[in-house]
Amino acid sequence: MNLCLEEHEEEILIEYRQFTLVKIVDVDPQIQAEGGRSSWIECKDERLYFKSAAPDHYAAVRLQHWNGEPPVNRDFRWEEFDEFRIMSANDTLSIWTVTMGPGGLQIALEPGWYHMRALSTGRKAISRKMRDHDLTQGFPRSVERYLLQIWAAE
Hints:
With about 150 residues, the chain is mainly β. It has a single domain (about 5-150), classed as Competence, DNA-entry nuclease inhibitor, ComJ (Substrate Binding Domain Of DNAk, Chain A, domain 1, Sandwich). The chain contains 1 helix and 11 strands, in the order E-E-E-E-E-E-E-E-E-E-H-E. The protein has one helix at about 125-130, and strands spanning about 5-15, 20, 25-30, 40-45, 45-50, 55-65, 80-90, 90-95, 100-110, 110-120, 140-150. The strands form 2 sheets. It has a 6-stranded mixed β-sheet. Strand 8 (about 90-95) and strand 9 form a beta hairpin. The chain is globular and about 50 Å long. It starts with a strand and ends with a strand.
């Protein structure tokens, strides 16, 4: 049974309907919104862009590093699910907001190829909530959730 080596979770500010994972220099197979396999993840400028279902809110993001392929998480009814390989050129993978830079979510990794499983839920709920939400009450929190699982490619 494979073990989770490191796990971090926090609320990330979603700006312009997205947040990023930085220092990703390649993705296999290519993820492209137009003509590719994924409409909610895009790789460009050494970043993976995770596209939210709504603008300006806080989403719960959990980042996990495993010693092998993790079991499929069944904690939520996932609305989006994607698996692919990433090439990291850095010794740390970090979650960044679009305008404010790095958050506290990061995992230490050796440079190289890794498998990634990305899951998201709460997308329909945050879209509905944003239609009726009074922004003078602040941004909605943790309606939308992401799980990013990473393990070494063989």
